[in-house]
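In response to the reviewer comment on reproducibility (Comment 2.3), we provide here a single inverse folding case reported in full, input and output, so that an independent group could reproduce the run without further information from us. The structure tokens appear first.
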């Protein structure tokens, strides 16, 4: 049974940082392309970062230079380090096995003073 469990969200001031975690079970993250998506109220869900099986990474233009996706193979976990956060980064963040219907429950990130 595949399970993805996100954690690490919360309330942070503009300019602050958060690190999100996506702990996987039932799959091996290094053998799958993984992604972090976000969805803000009234907006479409968007892919903000992806990591391929080779470790290659890609980012949405809106987060490039501020967010970093990584994985810990020993912990079978994917991370999203978010720095220099802006109010427009406020959204529910979810991890996904790319090209699959497996999603975590999501974690809320709110950037506000």
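Designed residues, in position order:
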């Amino acid at each position: 049974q595949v399970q993805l469990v996100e954690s690490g969200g919360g309330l942070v001031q503009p300019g602050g940082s958060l690190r999100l975690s996506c702990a996987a079970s039932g799959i091996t993250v290094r053998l799958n392309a993984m992604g972090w998506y976000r969805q803000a109220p009234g907006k479409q869900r968007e892919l903000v970062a992806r990591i391929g099986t080779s470790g290659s990474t890609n980012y949405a233009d809106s987060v490039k230079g501020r967010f970093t996706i990584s994985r810990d193979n020993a912990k079978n976990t994917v991370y999203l380090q978010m720095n220099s956060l802006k109010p427009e980064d406020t959204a529910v963040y979810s991890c996904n096995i790319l090209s699959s219907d497996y999603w975590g429950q999501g974690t809320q990130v709110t950037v506000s003073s």
